[in-house]
Amino acid sequence: MTNNDTDQRTTSTGAGSFVEHRITVRDLNIFYGKFRAIADVDMDIEPQSVTALIGPSGCGKSTFLRSLNRMHEVIDGATVEGSVQINGVDLYGPRVDPVLVRRKIGMVFQRPNPFPTMSIAENVLAGKRLNQRRLKKNEADEVVEAALRDSNLWEEVKDRLDAPGGGLSGGQQQRLCIARAIAVEPEVLLMDEPCSALDPISTLAVEQLMLELKEKYTIVIVTHNMQQAARVSERTAFFNIEGTGKPGRLIEMDDTAVIFSNPIQQATQDYVTGRFG
Amino acid sequence: MSVSVAHLTSDEMVAHHFDSPPLARRATAAIAGASMVIAVVLSALMGGVAPARVLAIGAVVYALSIYVVSRRVEGRRRGFDRLVTTLVTGAFLLVTIPLVSVIWTTIDRGSARFDSAFFTETMRGVVGAGGGAKHAIIGTLIITGLAALMSVPIGILVAIYLVEYGRRNRLSSMITTMVDVMTGIPSIVAGLFAYSLFAVFQGPGARSGLAGAVALTVLMTPVVVRATEEMLRLVPNDLREAAFALGVPKWKTIVKVVLPTAIGGILTGITLAIARVIGETAPLLIACGLAQDTNLNPLSGRMTTLPVMSYYGYVAPGFPPEAGYDRGWAAALVLIIIVLALFTVARVIAKVLQPKGLR
Ligand SMILES: Nc1ncnc2c1ncn2[C@@H]1O[C@H](COP(=O)(O)OP(=O)(O)OP(=O)(O)O)[C@@H](O)[C@H]1O
Ligand SMILES: [Mg+2]
């Protein structure tokens, strides 16, 4: 992983300012102990695009998303079988350090989780500071402002950057978490229902942000909002479960326009038209 | 409102009224007064108007009558509420009686020798009146300080292992069992353990402040482990995951995110653990012995703490004995003051360090 990283870096400076990060998922099975939450998923996630994951509650979208940056395994007894490759490197290979994977592949969680002991500014800088990067004062200020502007929080908090991060409203906390995730400039960004706690204005800002970020990064987003999936994503994947206790499966993945207008599977058709789930 | 319930009987109207009239303050005061009068009469009948008996009977009469009256006037729920409130308040007052009594007695009898000489003089060569507790205060601080120095790091590290690394594996359940067993060790056994441990190295009869500190460490460590463990478990997993997702290594997540979030509670736990051992007498009698003079070297020689001094003030008061009793009480008073100061400091630190915005 580390070696390959340096390779990518060289190509990236040679070819332009960024690398394409294509994610290839093969035969992925995800377990919580003995319970199989996701079964046999094959998926190709295009670089420089937004991929939306949709499906009924409990079908394993979050589980699948968390397996893409090795966050799944931090849960007791949780395991993954199969492979997730980024540009041909298997994230689950024996020599891969999950910590480094997570530095490259950022994540925004379903529930906002700012660090309660840190101020707003410290929260934004947490990723950089905790990873031993010494930041100069003006450098840090720039990072904070840029990240907060991108997540549409700047105007609301610019006068109280030293106030505690836990003192914000739920929606503000979520945008703070988005700022925290993008401040470390990940190459892939995974977002688990990032807008479920946001008002339409902030939602629009986050969607705008996704459109900007996808110029450089690969973005995967879980959403229950069909319009949002239709607005921001190029590709959409539909997950489903047959019943409780059964594993979730990838039913269909296609261009977003196709999924919403003319899907192949009946289940997909039913779901996107709101006839079940 | 009255229009919509016009067809109801007056009884039902009370039930449907949202702002049912509460008992006036004067009414409850009257009930309380009447209860007391009844109590006085009853206790006179039972042979003597002792204050304790009057209060006890009065409380019972009050609880019953306030329940009956309130139930009739205010309804069932409020009536029950008043009954439970009375019981809970009564229970609270009951447990404060020994506390207040202990503190009051200690202040009352300890103030006789609570003078400046008590803090500047030792017991060296003192047989009757005079002398002080300087040596015991210093001994208490040294021994308890050493015990804290040993048990706090061990305790916190063990708790971190249990919560963050050893989730439900064999070793961690063994450790948990051992910590439970340690919590139950009688303090005298801890003293014997420390005494015999040092006897192995320094020969039989060796006594030192360090031996006492080791005995206290045995008692204190499980308390620190338990308290820290509880606080670490309270830290939401979301925070750990947030840090992991930023590519922060596990140890750094623990040091920079988990511990700061839990620090307030951990400090309170440590303070409780210190308070638990600072008053220990039995193990120190064995491990440290009795000293009449200041000993600053914990590695060798006898060393005395406040509780031990207090104990000897009664066991061997000297002549006249009153001087020894007074010194004993004063030593107890100083000990209480030290513990209170400790709690205040811990409260302040915890307040300063508490997670901001989570109130
Ligand atoms: N920590 C866990 N331990 C055990 N089982 C879990 C755990 N987290 C999730 N599951 C199970 O895995 C399955 C998929 O859960 P997941 O959270 O991925 O669903 P989801 O598609 O994200 O649902 P939602 O849309 O409601 O967020 C569910 O059956 C759930 O009960
Ligand atoms: Mg989910």
List the helices and strands and how they pair.
The complex is a heterodimer of chains A (277) and B (359).
Chain A (H helix, E strand, L loop, with lengths): L1 H14 L7 E10 L2 E11 L4 E5 L6 H7 L10 E9 L2 E2 L7 H7 E4 L11 H11 L6 H14 L3 H4 L12 H14 L4 E5 L7 H14 L4 E5 L3 H7 L2 E7 L6 E8 H6 L4 H7 L5
Parallel strand pairs in A: 3-8, 3-9, 6-7, 7-8
Antiparallel strand pairs in A: 1-2, 1-4, 4-5, 9-10
Chain B lengths: L9 H7 L8 H21 L5 H24 L1 H35 L5 H5 L13 H32 L4 H14 L3 H16 L6 H26 L2 H9 L4 H29 L3 H6 L18 H10 L5 H33 L6
Helix pairs in contact in B: 2-3, 3-4, 4-14, 6-9, 6-11, 6-13, 7-9, 8-9, 9-11, 10-11, 11-14, 13-14
Task: Describe the fold and architecture.
The complex is a heterodimer of chains A (277) and B (359). Chain A is of the alpha/beta class and 277 residues long. Chain A has a single domain, classed as Rossmann fold. Helix content of chain A is 38%, strand content 24%. Chain A contains eleven helices and ten strands. In chain A, the strands form two sheets. In chain A, strands 6-7-8-3-9-10 form a six-stranded mixed beta sheet, sandwiched between helices. In chain A, strands 2-1-4-5 form a four-stranded antiparallel beta sheet, covered by helices on one side. In chain A, a hairpin with a 2-residue loop joins β1 and β2. In chain A, α4 runs parallel beside α7 and α5 packs across α7. The longest helix of chain A is centred in the first third of the chain and has 14 residues, at 2-15. Chain A is globular. Chain B has 359 residues and is mainly α. Chain B folds into two domains: 8-111, no CATH class; 116-358, MetI-like (MetI-like fold), CATH 1.10.3720.10. In chain B, α4 crosses α14 (321-353), α7 (170-183) crosses α9 (209-234) and α8 (187-202) packs across α9 (209-234). The relative contact order of chain B is 0.10. The interface between A and B is medium-sized, with 34 and 25 residues. Bound molecules: adenosine-5'-triphosphate and magnesium ion (MG). Residues 61-62, 110, 192 of chain A line the site of magnesium ion.
